[in-house]
Write a structure and sequence with these properties.
homodimer; 109 residues; alpha+beta; 5 helices; 13% strand; DNA-binding
DNA sequence: ACCGGTACTCAGTGTTACTATCTACCAGTA
DNA sequence: TACTGGTAGATAGTAACACTGAGTACCGGT
């Protein structure tokens, strides 16, 4: 992946995953596929799983195991209340940063 | 500083500094002050200097030493051609990420 | 002589995403 | 039976980044 993108994803990718889950619960492999469709073509699978472990340990999601017809059982992640609060905070932070950057791009700083 | 902000700045703060320099050359202490005025209230001074060293080593800026009336000599950083190219690339990456995130926020993914 | 503001430097730390590899389950095919 | 490919998840090691906290140095004013 482009190095700039890699670094820029730090701090946002976790929020991106939470935002995807906010739409509807999903499991890791599915999330990876959705992100690929959304344009994040080369986000490594391992990266997503690492994030899922992290947000689980932070207590932002609830987990349900479901058997799959096509492979090993899936771990379906769903945002809980804490996760929603965290996501809201993420959007606030993002908005702040985004506004500042647009200002900078327009040469107003 | 808020932890989310700290993580989100990774990969963008370097671009922010370059964008500030794109307006007009500046020295470290001045950049820190400008960023504080712009709303980035609690970005550590040491962080800015570390970035300046980095972009110097990457060859994105030219440096001129000037005596100061109020303290030790200033190192004035100015964007060079490579720096402008790098900054342009940064904006491209930023735009891509920004668009995807706005889509996600609107629930279109 | 001292203090505060200016200006820069540096070692050590925690967090993050990536790479590469591994395990495991199942369906289809030779 | 053996083998391949797609699905699904886990993990150790690495590089890059921003922060913390401390330090050095220069100068003007009291």
């Amino acid at each position: 992946m482009a190095k700039q993108m890699t670094e820029m994803l730090k701090g946002t990718l976790e929020g991106i995953v939470l935002a995807v889950l906010n739409g509807s619960p999903a499991y890791g492999y599915e999330i990876t596929a959705r992100l690929r469709d959304t344009g994040f073509a080369d986000i490594a699978e391992g990266t997503i799983y690492a994030i899922l472990v992290r947000i689980e340990q932070k207590g932002l999601v609830s987990i349900e195991k479901r058997p799959s017809e096509k492979g090993p059982p899936r771990k379906v992640y769903a945002l809980n209340t804490a996760g929603e609060a965290y996501l809201a905070e993420f959007w606030t932070t993002w908005s702040f940063l985004s506004e500042r950057l647009e200002q900078l791009r327009d040469g107003k700083a």
